[in-house]
Amino acid sequence: MSTNPLYTAAKYGLVGFTRACGEDSPFAKENITVNCICPAFVPTNLCPPHMLALFPKEHITPMSTVTKALDTFLDSDSMTGQSVELSLDQLYFRKMVDYPNASQRWLGEESKKFWEDAYS
Amino acid sequence: MSKPVAIVTGAASGIGLASTKHLLSRGYRVAMADFNAPEGTKQSAELGEDTLFIHTDVASYADQAALFKAAFEWGGRRLDVLFANAGIADSQSIYEASSPVEKDGMIEPLNLQTIEVDLNAPIQGVWLFKHYARQNAIPGGKVIITSSAAGL
């Protein structure tokens, strides 16, 4: 979002933080779930008020999509580490970008024991 | 059994306020945190005694730690949900035409309050949440963080 690079950096950071604190983390073992919502344009005060009325209505995501996402996370004891994009009336669960090669897949999926030993 | 307890940051308006109302409809008690004291006090008064407004600057660790302590006690020593939602747009434009210069000729730093509020505060929030969620009758709880489609 070129108008708000600090906001963009912070929000990217939250997606990474959420994924790190998800199903492979110690939090999962103690029943602490961490998920995040990634709303598209929901009309709030974050948008300068004089511009709100001018935003095209067909691209507005309603608050009901936010509450639907909250319900999804509140109703599950196991869902964790998830980032869900909220657009219009839909929830889209977004995955990490794919691995470019087998070595990166190993690092991402099978090196956990190595890193646990390294940081224990 | 006592009602489940949630902390919502940025609860005085927007997504935080709508989510507070939604949590109330689901039977939660909600500790409403916001930087805007007049609006937060007003909204909490309208929503009734299953809410408690706690004036909080989430960028201040002391404020946020006090929020969690107060919410946990108010909720009957339980904390089930953290909705880390407070957020602000860019605190200063990195594109500004001029670079403010200090007396010694060095360029002043960019104001990174946005990182404090939008990123560091939710991380401190999870750190605090863990401490209290472990003390629940059934240990554990749920954190939901407001990122953005701009964060994907």
What would you say this structure looks like, in words?
The complex is a heterodimer of chains A (120) and B (152). In chain A, β2 (83-87) and β3 (90-94) form a beta hairpin. Chain A has 120 residues and is of the alpha+beta class. Chain A contains 6 helices and 3 strands. Chain A has helices spanning 5-20, 26-29, 49-52, 63-74, 102-109, 112-119, and strands spanning 32-39, 83-87, 90-94. In chain A, strands 1-2-3 form a 3-stranded mixed sheet, sandwiched between helices. Chain A is elongated, with a radius of gyration of 18 Å. Chain B has a single domain (5-151), classed as 3-Layer(aba) Sandwich (Rossmann fold). In chain B, α4 (113-133) links the parallel β4 (81-84) and β5. The A-B interface holds A 1, 3-15, 17-18, 21, 27, 30-40, 42, 44-46, 63, 66-67, 70-71, 73-74, 83, 85-87, 94 and B 13-15, 18-19, 22-23, 26, 81, 83, 87-91, 94, 112, 114-115, 117-119, 122-123, 126, 129-130, 133-134, 138-152. β1 (32-39) of chain A pairs parallel with β5 (141-146) of chain B.
